[in-house]
Amino acid sequence: MTRQQNASWQITKPAVTSRHGIVASQSRVAATVGAKIMAEGGNAVDAAIATSFALGAAEPWMSGMGGGGYMVIRPANGPAKVVEFGMRAPKGLRTEDYPITGGKANDLFPWPAVQDDRNVFGATAVAIPGQVAGMALAHETFATKPWADLLAPAISLADDGLPVDWFAQLIIGGSARDLHPFDASRETFLDDAGFPKSSGWTALGETRCDLSRLAASLRVVAAQGAPGFYTGPLADSIIADLHAAGGRHRLEDLSTYRATLVDASADAYRGHTVLGTPTLTAGPTLARALDLMAGNWHPRGTAPDATAYAAYDAAIRQANIERYETMGDIENEPDPSCTSHFSVVDAEGTMVAVTQTLLSIFGSRLMLPGSGILMNNGIMWFDPEPGKPNSLGQDKRCLANMCPTVVERSDGAVFALGASGGRKIMPSVAQLISMVLDYGMDLDTALHTPRLDMSLVEQTIADDSLAPEVLSALEAALPHPVIPAPRTIFPLHFACPSAVSRLAGINAGATEIMTPWADAVAAER
Questions:
Q1: Which residues contact 201 (CB under 8 A, 6 or more apart)?
Q2: Cα(164)–Cα(172) distance, rounded to whole angstroms?
Q3: Rounded to 5 degrees, what are φ and ψ at 488?
Q4: What's the pLDDT score for residue 1?
Q5: Nearest Cα residue to 343 out of 333, 331, 328, 353
Q6: Is 473 helix (H, G, I), strand (E, B) or coil?
Q7: What are phi and psi of 427, to 5 degrees?
Q8: pLDDT (average), residues 408-433
Q9: CB-based contact 402:69 (threshold 8 Å)
């Protein structure tokens, strides 16, 4: 028995199946919002937009209007498209504001440390957010229901405030020290003594975090659309608060921001098709990893063995090495990443995979006092060292780890999937793709099958539920240490996937089994 987890636990989370639409999300509350939209006649994109905004109130530390992301849409009839709404560095950013002090950064990425963690915390860490623009573009292009109707559930959730259950207490407690310096963040998530807000162990009542300022901002966006966020009084408030906190953001940064609609990348893999994000995400790296897997290893049996896991490790590591040597918004061209992921399928078979993020948990930890919006720390995505493909610079797009993907299996099954978890995302998605394509697994089986994480340079983390003989063979095969670790609620040793599938008119949805808030919800009428 490990120290972290009782070995007698047998934890499962069965997939949900239905002939109706399904939303699979890290938040059951948000998934229920999207499923209700489809039950009321909306399509998968309508549901995705409603889910996206609901997540900003249901788990505000992961994503929301202060962040950005990517959406892959595979219509039931028509070519797959990607809505790109990633974040950008401000036009007035000054690289000299981020002096390197030596050592390594202490958050998600192993960059050289920057003085006072200016690329991690506060206004100097904030990139220009794209979530509102991305959802507006998706609505304009694919949706059927009125925009305001899709934001109404998020407004209701924000009006009610965020219930502080045990899991919310865990999340807030883990970031309390970093939230404390920022007035609105402290007032919202901490109590008067500066401790995390909490509900009593046996109390019938419930503590809530006040999200009324966020609700007011959502009302502006619901009434005015994306222009209400990127221009006008709300934009003025956002920029004024960023300036007051030491940022160099301009109104022009918001007014000139544009989400883009591009063709999805389409890559062949052993007779199947993988549809993904073509630029400045982990999508191209995923395609490279799958290409290496196809060329260097052939699956056998009905589930991965030690040889398969070793092949995953080698291919994903090589693809990541190439990624960080070559990728970045070098020339600032439109052609040439703690996060929420959710996947949607509707009754007609349209698939949507969305990954959106503030980057770190609580993003920059800065909640803007005027608008109640938690802002991202997208500047941390950039390498602070100059002269690199992904070095920090003005008006550059961020190189993200997000990896929303749609997979078409040769037997007619279609899957939409992705994950949260920073650099753990792509390894998780690649392994799940192999499980459903190479081994013919359904979602229920794939989401319960052990995975590795090879996002760290010097070691591989292996699910300790792997058979002892598989772990031993893997340790002998790999040139670096293999560290067995439990699949637990906290800490997260592996990424957190959410996926939907469709085969012969039957939809299914499943989420990471160890994430207590995650679930798939069917749009039962």
A1: none
A2: 9
A3: -120, 170
A4: 33
A5: 353
A6: helix
A7: -55, -40
A8: 96
A9: yes
Q: Return d(Cα 232, Cα 23) in angstroms, integer.
A: 34
Nearest one of 32, 172, 71 to 490, comparing CA atoms: 172
Residue 458 structure tokens: 């010097």
Q: Which pLDDT score is estimated for 339?
A: 87
pLDDT at 454 over 90: yes
Coil, helix or strand at residue 119: coil
Which whole number is the average pLDDT over 463-469?
95
Q: Residue length, the chain? A: 525
Mean of pLDDT values over 480-499? 93
pTM above 0.90, yes or no: yes
What pLDDT is attached to residue 203?
58
- Rounded-to-integer distance, Cα 505 and Cα 21, Å: 11
Q: Look up residue 344 and give its two tokens.
A: 């949607």
Sheet with 405-408: strands ordered across: 16-18, 506-511, 496-503, 414-420, 405-408, 272-276, 265-269
Q: What is d(CA 480, CA 156) in angstroms, rounded to the nearest whole number?
A: 50
Q: How far apart are CA 495 and CA 339, in angstroms?
A: 10
Helix (H, G, I), strand (E, B) or coil at 33: helix
pLDDT of residue 452: 97
Tell me which amino acid residue 181 is. P
β-strand pairing of 351-357 with 68-74: antiparallel
Mean pLDDT of 456-479: 95
DSSP string covering 331-393: S--S----EEEEEEE-TT--EEEEEEE-SSTTTTS-B-TTT-PBPP-GGGGSBSSTTSTTB--
Q: Which residues contact 430 (CB under 8 A, 6 or more apart)?
A: 286, 289, 290, 293, 312, 315, 316
Taking a C-beta distance cutoff of 8 angstroms, is the pair 128, 89 a contact?
yes
Report CA Rg, the chain.
22
Least confident of 98-112, 351-365, 372-386, 505-519: 98-112
Which range has the worst mean pLDDT, 289-293, 335-339, 374-378? 335-339
Residue tagged 């997979």 (tokens): 407
Specify the amino acid at residue 99.
Answer: P
Q: Contact at 8 Å (CB) between 69 and 82?
A: no
H-helix or E-strand spanning residue 263 = strand 260-263
Is 327 strand, coil or helix? coil
Scanning the structure block, which residue is given the tokens 């990443």? 337
d(CA 240, CA 372): 13
Two structure tokens written together for 101: 């002090």
CA atoms of 57 and 221, how far apart (whole Å): 14
Beta carbons of 88 and 332 less than 8 angstroms apart: no
